[in-house]
């Protein structure tokens, strides 16, 4: 094998994007369809090559059939994805917005809930600073003081879902699915990170930094039918901060409000009473239900302890 399948596919797509597939045996320039007919390329690659060929021959508006340039298609795609971002932070009583880390420090989110949502951000390609609307790498977020060193190390592992895991036997970065197949990440983690990617546009090919839909992702070995079926079952990989129950990322994202200026999504949370305030002189006191918004005479339950996920392994990252 002189070229890996990934390398050969990318080079063929580069040819198609310039307007022709080259038949080196006959020294001819062919369209994608012509190349498929004379078997210069595999017909299984036709769809992906036609997408690349459109960069040269032109795209069409699906509604008007008007020809579109690559720039116009890219601008339209950017516009479509503007409101399709990961959960950026929380919003309290439809007023104050804050980052996930601050919400954890203020005990509005449990450590586990906040950490999983931050990892979802990293897995989709960026950490979001909701105070400046900036999209940052994990290292940039750490340098800005958005989280501590322990969180940085955990988020670098999640970020590999977007930028690629290191294959010990190759220089080619691995996608989440490929890392799962090689035992670099476990299935539960892989499904959680893929679910976050799916909710913001598709599945990331870390070699080119592009989201792909299910069918194309399967063709590019970013997914298989078994993994798709597991994701389609809508696994509850995240935590609803209001109910404390497990929930899927898409359902949690649908609870968010969207900032009309930035397009960022914020999860509404209520500012509940801090359980630590219920301890006096070493004795936990009960308060009336009317003070807590419940029935008279009811007792506020103690805090639910949710530990942050314990990462005990390390992965070499790009």
UniProtKB/TrEMBL annotation:
InterPro entries per the UniProt record, alphabetical: Plakin, Plakin_repeat_sf, Plectin_repeat
One GO term of the cellular component aspect?
Answer: intercalated disc
Q: Does the keyword Repeat apply?
A: yes
- Which keywords label this protein? Phosphoprotein, Repeat
Q: Name one GO biological process term.
A: wound healing
Q: Which domain of life is it from?
A: Eukaryota
Question: Can you say what this protein is called?
Answer: Uncharacterized protein
* Species, as recorded: Periophthalmus magnuspinnatus
